[in-house]
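Supplementary Text 2. Reproducibility record for the structural model of the 258-residue chain.

All settings were left at their defaults, and a single model was retained for analysis rather than an ensemble. We include the record here because the model underlies the residue-level annotations in Supplementary Table 4.
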Amino acid sequence: MKRLTPLLTLLSGAVTAAVLFTMSAQASPPGTQPVAGNGPPAAAAPPADDVETDVEAETPADEEQPDPASTRPAEVSPPSGPGRSDSTEVNTVEQNWIGQLENGATIAITVKGGKAEAYVCDGRAMEVWLSGTVRDGKIELTGPDAKLTGIIRGDNASGEMIVGVRRWKFTAEPDEKAVDEAVTKSGSGTAAAIYRADDEVRKAGIDGGWIMLPDGTQIGIVTWNGKPIPAPPLDPAFYSTVVNGVTINAVPVVPGAR
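Retained model, structure tokens:
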């Protein structure tokens, strides 16, 4: 029995040691507990760049992408200001106006490049030739002892003519005659409204003026030996007429030509 006592004591110590080891392991923090097995360490998360690449790769190839040009801001046209105008320069107008004075006389005004010529006659004894400018809608013409001023509003012209001490108001509208062979003769872009005896005839002491009215008729005066008489109509094929057996040739009146 005495021989068993040391063995029992040794066994009791071993049991006590095992209990203490078990209690110590249970009391240790989780991070210090041994890991079962010797497997490989867990794989690290992929870098951020790789994740973005994968996302792009997963985008459907046929998905419509926005047009870079459509995302650009719209271009804004610069506002108009002083010195900027989209309208046609009024001084380049090329037009004829035909109307009447208060005394019943007919007036024709032809304008080209800011320069103007006018002829006024009653078809019997009164006639006046004037020249000058039409700029920015203002008419300013002068002739022998005569002056004509007016304005153009829209398509209508109006104003006043002064001859000596007499004054007459006038109104005129655009001449809408179709372009014909007179355009070639006048060198203008519109049919001529006023004709006058050519230089050769005038050097012989004979003068004449004609207004081509919109309805195709003519009104004019021929001055023969200083005396005005009603002018025979011009032949539209040759723009000439005969007075007392003398042929009078006429040419279109072009502003700035004389």
